[in-house]
């Protein structure tokens, strides 16, 4: 039997559940990219906020590329479960925050009209780094944006809100981009200048794009996960997500209108997100990408396997503490040494089957903010980054097919450039610094490189 409103009586009593009345909740948020992460992070916070008394913050999820998640959740009345897993924990909660899921290619008008309602205040995004349609210089690729992106949908909804003299929208990126709100605002304005100049001024004065730092490790759910989950909860849940106990959400407090009181359920509303996002992107995500490319090259499948490889472990610690941490202007309450130690523990979680191949996807969209910012900062200060250089070597062998087909929007471009020249490849990202001229790999670097080439 499948999880749905009608079968909740069969759901195991071990599964914790919300107590608010879903039928009394209007949609207040339209979320683009309703993948695993949104369901395990923002929707989880919003579910808790509604359980704490917030009203009219139900979520309409939008899938831009396929009907998969709609097929998972719509027959389940939007219901799914979230399982927090570690060596000592397996805790499952029923989530009711997602009211419906729409597929952009066939429900465009429904999505636009929902965004244009006075009761909708926030459009949020987890559409992957490539979903923002940026070119190599970080500007909008207008042709790509006009093809199958969220930009035309948002522009059409903003036009209706403008003509109806409604309040503007808050556009909130929850993707792993540096200064994600600033980038989204810049790109949205570039689109409006092309598409609807008059609206550009209204957008600037009436809409906001807060930056966020989002952190929760959420591997793609596998069929095996779903089978284990069914046995555990007593129903089939095709939309279930698996994650770690840890979660963090730091949000710039800059909203065009109302928002849920996420601060009452564990999120942090701050004036400046930068210290948190820089630490997270350069330390956690920088280490993740290192483990992905070097771990795959050394025959590992999962993060927890790669982090227990002594040579990789040593290099990851160096990358986080000696290369990334010195580039971060930490906030008073941040302790980057204990942050690195906590990351090592999180990476070691044996209950999360986090595939290195999932992290290896879209490296061209990830490496700039995860490694190149660190590299450039240290190069300006006369310091080397041997661990990152080892990572780049492994990434290059990945791009040349060492681990099978390469899933990256710029795979062809990079592969054609890769005649063994690291600098040429990095120049693609506008990264011109000479970086490997006098680098002498250490013994353990050489060991890792040997398995990477
Ligand atoms: P997912 O694969 O489950 O979902 C990706 C979503 O993005 C899907 O809805 C897909 O349709 C959409 N998408 C993919 N390419 C797109 C494009 N070119 N244009 C528009 N939409 C597109 O992945 P997941 O786990 O939900 O992660 C999504 C994003 O969330 C990541 O790329 C990252 O930026 C962020 N994130 C993920 C975390 C995780 O551990 N999974 C943790 C922190 C952030
Ligand atoms: C991972 C991230 O797939 C990847 O690129 O590095 O999704 C990572 O799991 C999250 O940023 C953790 O918060």
Structure, described:
- It is built from 19 helices and 11 strands.
- It is an alpha/beta fold and 453 residues long.
- It has 2 domains: 5-270, NAD(P)-binding Rossmann-like Domain (Rossmann fold, 3-Layer(aba) Sandwich); 274-452, Orthogonal Bundle (N-(1-d-carboxylethyl)-l-norvaline Dehydrogenase, domain 2).
- It starts with 26 loop residues before the first strand and ends with a helix.
- The chain binds 1,4-dihydronicotinamide adenine dinucleotide and D-mannonic acid (CS2).
Cross-sheet strand order for the largest sheet: 5-2-1-6-7
The CATH topology of the largest domain turns out to be: Rossmann fold
CATH class of the largest domain: Alpha Beta
Cα end-to-end separation: 50 Å
Main sheet makeup: 5 strands, parallel
Bound molecules: 1,4-dihydronicotinamide adenine dinucleotide, D-mannonic acid
Report the structural category. Answer: alpha/beta
Number of strands: 11
Q: Give the SSE string.
A: EHHEHEEEHEHHEHHEHEEEHHHHHHHHHH
Cα-based radius of gyration, to the nearest Å = 22 Å
CATH architecture descriptor of the largest domain = 3-Layer(aba) Sandwich
Overall structural domain count: 2
Helix content: 40-55%
For CATH, the homologous superfamily of the largest domain is named as NAD(P)-binding Rossmann-like Domain
Can you tell me the residue ranges where pLDDT is under 50 for at least 5 consecutive residues?
Answer: 432-439
Quote the average pLDDT.
Answer: 94
Shape: globular
Approximate strand percentage? 5-15%
Number of helices: 19
